[in-house]
Structure formats: C-alpha cells, structure tokens
Amino acid sequence: MSKRYQQFINNEWVDAQSGEWFDSLDPFSGEAWAQVPLSNEQDVDCAVQAAAAAMDGPWGKMSATDRGMLIHKLGTLIDANANELAEVESMDNGKLKSEVAGQVRYTAKYFYYYGGLADKIQGAVIPIDKPKVFNYTRYEPVGVVGTITPWNSSLLLTAWKVAPALAAGNTIVAKPSEHTPVSLLVLARLFVEAGFPPGVFNVVTGFGKGCGEAIVTHPLVKVVAFTGGDEGGRKVNELAAKHLKRVTLELGGKSPNIVFDDADLARAANGVITGIFSAGGQTCMAGSRLLLQESIHDEFVERLIDITSKAKLGDPKLSDVQVGPVATKPQFDKVVSYVDIGKSEATCAFGGNVRTGPGFGAGQFVEPTIFTGVTNDMRIAQEEVFGPVLAVLKFKDEDDALRIANDIRFGLASGVWTRSLHRAMYMSERLKAGTVWVNNYRSTSFTTPFGGYKDSGLGREGGIEAVKEFLEVKSVWISTDLDMPDPFVRKY
Ligand code: NAD
C-alpha cells in the first residue's frame, strides 16, 4: 500500500486541483511506494500567487537578521530530521542510504551558511564622478523564484537554490523531479516547524510539461533556477527568454579526469573511482572521461579493474552495498544503450553487463563499466551517459591533455592528478570548466561557486555568487545641490 503525500501551498497541504495523482517508484523493487498530486497550471498559479503575496506579508517586512535566523533554524531541523529525509529520498532515487544521509546532513550547512549571509548583503557608496550628488546601491530581492530540480540529488540541489534565494529575501515555488517528489514535501513540513510565514516556500509536484513550464512562463516568477538535462535546460531558457526572465541553468557534463605519470597513482585510482562510480555515475559532475598519460595507461587501468571488481552491487538500503540501481527505468535503458554503443566503438575492459536475479530487485542494475581504446571523436567520449560508465583515453603531455579535455561541448568540471605544482597550475588555468579539482574529485561546498562553462550551464550556485543570481541592484541618486538646475540642458 503506497503512502499519499499532498502538495504544499501557502503552508497548507492540498490535493491537485484536477484531483489526479501519480506514483513514485522505488528503483530497487520497481514498485510504487508513494503517491503525489499531479499538479498542473492551476496549482502552479495558486503557489505563485501565495509566494507573491508573501513578499508583501511578514516575510517581506522581516529584518534580514531575523530572516537569517529562520533560515539557520531550518538548517538545524534538516539536520535533526536527516534520517527521515534520507530514507524518503533514497526510496525515490535508489542511491545508497548511507550516502544520502551524509548528503542531507551536509544540506543543512547550506542553510547555516546562507542564513549567516542574509544580513551581510550590502550595497556600496559609489564615488560618483559628479559634484553635489550622493549615490549608493541597494540590493533588493527579485520576488518569486521558481526552482526546478532533477532526480539524482533532490534535496541538495534544491538547497543550492532555495537557501541563497531566501537569504536574498525572496519566496519560492519548488518543483522536484516527477521521479523523486517526496523529500521536498518532507522538507516543506520543516519550514512550518521552523516558523516560516505562509507562502514563503511552496512545493508543487508534477511533470516538466504541465507543471515545470507553467512555473517558467508565469509572469510573477522572476527568476527560474533549473538543474537538469540539456534538452529541458534549453527549453526552459527559450521559454524564459520569451518572457525576458532570468535563469540559472546547471546542466550536464562529460568531465575529464586527467592523471599524469607523476601522480600518486594509488590515491588517483581511488579518486577516479569516486568520480565515476559513486552514486552509480548519476551525477552531473561525474568524471566520465579518464585521460591517462601513455606511460601509465596499462598499469592504471589494472588498478581500476582491481578496485572495481570488488564493488558490491545491491539493495541501496544495505550498509555494505557500494553501487545501487539506476534510478529510473528510462535512465536504465539509456545507460544500457550507451554500454552497447561503447562496445561497438571501443574495448570493454571491465563490466558491461546488466545484473539481475536474487539481490538485484527489479534488475535495474548496470555493472560499473570501463571502456579502453577510446578516442575523442567517439560518442562514448563526447555524450553524457549519467551512469557507471568510464571512457579511458590516452594523452602524451600537458598540451595534448588540454586539447582532448577541452574539445567537447560541455565544461562543468575537471580533475588533475599530479605531484607537480607547475603542472597543476598550468592545467587549472587552461581547462575550460567551472571547477578544477587537483588531487581530489567531486568536492563541493556552500562556500564556493559551482557551475558550468559552455553547454554545461549559465550562472553559479554556492558561495556569495549564488545570492547575486536572486537580487536586483538599484542605483540611488540624491542631489545635495541647492543651485537651480537648467530645465533644458543636462550637465555631464
Ligand atoms: P530533466 O531535464 O529531465 O529534468 C529535470 C527537471 O526539469 C525535472 O524536474 C523535470 O520535470 C523538469 N523539466 C523537464 N522538462 C521541462 C520543461 N520543458 N520545462 C520545465 N521543467 C522541465 O533531467 P533529469 O533526467 O531529471 O536529470 C538528469 C540531468 O540533470 C543530467 O543531464 C545531469 O547532468 C543534470 N544534472 C546537472 C547538475 C548540475 O549541477 N549541473 C546536477 C545534477 C544533474
């Protein structure tokens, strides 16, 4: 019997206006475990109206310090309820419960950081180039922010948007992925417990077409913060442009992880595995293209196979399991099709099979897979798989590595493994990616920006940069001139 959850609008729990529901599936068992309302344009309109009204209510009138304290309190509640949040999110996305629990606890820290930042958003007195005038800037909230997020890390990726948007004084209409709707509804309950006024945070549950697009096109939504795939991101950008609306887009990646011959190879091997096989490769920042310097290629691939062959696949709720199922059936089909493409283009050095049978639930499992003999023109080297599939390429020297690494339409992240400071600096300056990790991979933090070059996105999340995405800046001119101005001639 699956559990029913309602939408959250204006601090109230409501059904969809259509009265329709849809199932949320457990990727391990393949069975429906929860039902949520099928939100449409009318539900989005109610949520946006509530969010717009909240801008003029107690929230809009609250001091930035009090706002920050509320945001901080929400963080403490997320931490205190981390087990429940992790349980529902892992039921929805099939990721290891242990990993999701850590991620949820870390999510709390985004609210601590941005809570602290709320009353430090300040304008400046501008040394203006004219006499007898005082000019200053003030930052103001944009108003209603729409957040649209994917299924891989629902809470964390929503927090990346919601925490800075709230710190800036805005209100939110959040739409989680149709595959993972439940954790944001549990989060909504914590907003009430923290004492947020009605309308500040609203959650609608629906699909991209009927619900997501309604958020993007609603005239009262001023900024849309989107994370997801290339196709959805482009559509959101087109719709937003028609309405002259600002967007942040965090899209896909095909990130190079570059290992030089002078690296600590044991550490690098573990880092490469973390980069591609943790979370089953279902992460935008996956290091899915491994670039190996020629002289260490064979030895390094052996190391990877040795580690990967010991990985335990299975039920993500079990504590000793290291690789869970692919999160959705369409994604499973996509990963399997890319494994077939890889087999036709390159050499499958490890894995390449689907796992079924006892211990593998509904069988949505793909083995961690390593392709060697990959060249940069192959589809397996250029296209995002979003699964546990690693493409291994060879390079000669720094410039050859840079040529291969940058010859792609994505630019989300990159990794460099070397003991040479010169090499690390040389590569970091020239890689066309929003993040460069040197001798580590997949580190993120609320304190520093994250986002993509090229087709990987627009705007930044994390750090002070993220708050600026949700602010308007106003320039105020105050004349201190007592002389009578000429009514027709403007002085420059
Ligand atoms: P998706 O684009 O299918 O869906 C993401 C969200 O967008 C969902 O909530 C969906 O309902 C909504 N959506 C889809 N079409 C829409 C439309 N036309 N208008 C409005 N909303 C729409 O992506 P997904 O399959 O859920 O997630 C996987 C993708 O997300 C991968 O490509 C991955 O690289 C990307 N991703 C990026 C980051 C990052 O930070 N750059 C992080 C995680 C995932």
Automatic annotation (TrEMBL):
The keyword Metal-binding does not apply. The keyword Protein biosynthesis does not apply. Keywords: Oxidoreductase. The active site is at E250. Residues 13-476 form the Aldehyde dehydrogenase domain. InterPro entries: Ald_DH/histidinol_DH, Ald_DH_C, Ald_DH_CS_CYS, Ald_DH_CS_GLU, Ald_DH_N, Aldehyde_DH_dom. Belongs to the aldehyde dehydrogenase family. This is Aldehyde dehydrogenase (NAD+).
